């Protein structure tokens, strides 16, 4: 390593220590040590398997003893619950008024596992087939400026239909409420069609939260006093505004005021969630001259805001486009860290490992503003071609992970001292030699 790389490595070590202390301020000392060790091991090994994490810690004791100690600490549910709360609190402090809070359920598929606790049938997002595994609640935040788009993990938790009385939807509502409280109702919740649900919309509407939800075509809404299918409302909405995505793709959009009936039963005057419906048609020109069109609808609620119709369309379209960022986070967690290769049997240990993995991810994602510094010092890890900085404008966290792993692999978590060094570093004032 050259001087620049050594200095960056030292800075990373300092940042890592401060990060762990910030997220474990109310934990006991053994738990703080454990959190520091296992997150360091996850970075070095890029794995969720406890044995591989223990190997990369390179301790002087036997590998079996290190593995047993880490596994024992994973059972401390009280301390790990504090970590989840601290992570949620620290992440919510980054949220601003126009920050995006993207919620998207994911899954951990374990088709060949038979003895893992709490396994249930979940839908595999890759092929749509139901398999053995766990549902996962994932929430990430996105802050966008004129120069860059930064992503930061907010929360992740594993859910089993066979363990606990709470449903997945209730857990999501609880996290939404926590985020609203911790962030003073900052940010805009962005969700896909799976959240086009009367209960979801009702909860967000009652809490006064801003949200953007893509709607299904079978939804009925109140429009100009009449209950109509949402697709008919979209067809009647004038697409006044045009947004050019690139030279081949453009979007025409318009806004209508609608009311979402909140009653599950047919009643004369049901309670309504007053919202805006952004109806859009996307047009794409292909190389062979073919032109394809697609329509979609976004339900928008922005309390206490004074946007024009055009600004609402622009905000809704740009925000929903950024929803894909959480899919990229899912892909990185599964490819870089082997998320679906978790091999512990107890459900509380699986949850603990998932929490610690996302804590590690939170640390890595804090260095998106260091990407140019990393590119200069570690060009072989960050750039495909020399001085080709365009790659840094894309999803750069894969490369940042490689840099941090390389830096951490060159250091030890604890410096080994001889007996003479321990005496020399003693905090007591040495007595004069003549006494």
List keywords for this structure.
globular; ten-stranded mixed sheet; 435 residues; disordered C terminus; alpha+beta
Please give a structural write-up:
The chain has 15 helices and twelve strands. The protein is globular and about 75 Å long. Helix content is about 40%, strand content about 25%. The strands form two sheets. Strands 1, 2, 3, 4, 5, 6, 9, 10, 11 and 12 form a ten-stranded mixed sheet that branches. Strands 7-8 form a two-stranded antiparallel sheet. The protein has a domain at about 5-80 and about 345-410. The protein starts with a helix and ends in an 11-residue tail after the last helix. The longest helix is centred in the N-terminal third of the chain and has 21 residues, at about 5-25. With about 425 residues, it is of the alpha+beta class.
Note the topology.
Elements: H1 3-23, H2 29-45, H3 50-57, H4 63-73, H5 77-92, E1 100-109, E2 120-123, E3 130-144, E4 149-159, H6 168-182, E5 188-191, H7 198-206, E6 210-214, E7 220-223, E8 226-229, H8 230-236, E9 241-244, E10 249-261, E11 272-285, E12 291-301, H9 309-321, H10 324-336, H11 347-365, H12 371-377, H13 379-382, H14 397-409, H15 419-424
Parallel strand pairs: 1-5, 5-6
Antiparallel strand pairs: 1-3, 2-3, 3-4, 6-12, 7-8, 9-10, 10-11, 11-12
């Amino acid at each position: 390593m050259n001087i620049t790389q050594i200095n960056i490595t030292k800075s990373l070590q300092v940042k890592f220590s401060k990060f762990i202390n910030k997220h474990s301020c109310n934990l006991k000392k053994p738990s703080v040590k454990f959190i520091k060790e296992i997150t360091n091991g996850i970075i070095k090994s890029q794995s969720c398997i406890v044995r591989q994490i223990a190997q990369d810690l390179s301790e002087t004791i036997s590998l079996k003893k290190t593995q047993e100690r880490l596994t024992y600490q994973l059972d401390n549910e009280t301390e790990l619950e504090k970590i989840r709360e601290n992570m949620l609190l620290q992440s919510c402090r980054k949220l601003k008024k126009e920050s995006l809070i993207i919620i998207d359920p994911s899954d951990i598929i374990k088709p060949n596992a038979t003895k893992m606790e709490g396994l249930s049938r979940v839908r595999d997002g890759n092929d749509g087939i139901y398999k053995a595994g766990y549902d996962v609640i994932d929430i990430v935040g996105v802050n966008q400026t004129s120069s860059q788009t930064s992503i930061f993990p907010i929360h992740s938790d594993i859910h089993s239909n066979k363990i606990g009385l709470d449903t997945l939807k209730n857990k999501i509502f609880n996290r939404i409420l926590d985020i609203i409280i911790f962030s003073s109702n900052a940010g805009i919740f962005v969700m896909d069609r799976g959240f086009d649900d009367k209960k979801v919309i009702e909860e967000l509407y009652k809490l006064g939260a801003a949200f953007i939800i893509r709607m299904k075509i079978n939804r009925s809404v109140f429009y100009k006093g009449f209950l109509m299918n949402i697709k008919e409302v979209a067809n009647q909405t004038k697409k006044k505004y045009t947004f050019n995505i690139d030279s081949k793709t453009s979007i025409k959009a318009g806004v209508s005021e609608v009311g979402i009936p909140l009653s599950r039963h047919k009643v004369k005057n049901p309670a309504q969630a007053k919202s805006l419906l952004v109806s859009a048609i996307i047009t794409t020109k292909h190389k062979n001259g073919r032109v394809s069109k697609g329509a979609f609808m976004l339900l928008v609620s922005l309390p206490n805001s004074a946007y024009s119709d055009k600004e609402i369309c622009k905000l809704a379209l740009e925000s929903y486009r950024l929803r894909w960022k959480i899919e990229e986070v899912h892909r990185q967690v599964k490819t870089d860290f082997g998320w679906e290769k978790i091999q512990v049997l107890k459900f509380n240990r699986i949850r603990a490992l998932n929490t610690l993995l996302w804590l590690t991810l939170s640390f890595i994602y804090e260095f998106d503003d260091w990407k140019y510094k990393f590119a200069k010092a570690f060009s072989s890890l960050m750039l495909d071609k020399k001085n080709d900085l365009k790659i840094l404008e894309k999803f750069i966290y894969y490369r940042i992970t490689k840099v941090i792993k390389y830096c951490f692999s060159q250091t030890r978590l604890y410096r080994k001292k001889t007996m003479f060094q321990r005496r020399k570093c003693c905090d007591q004032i040495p007595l004069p030699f003549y006494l």
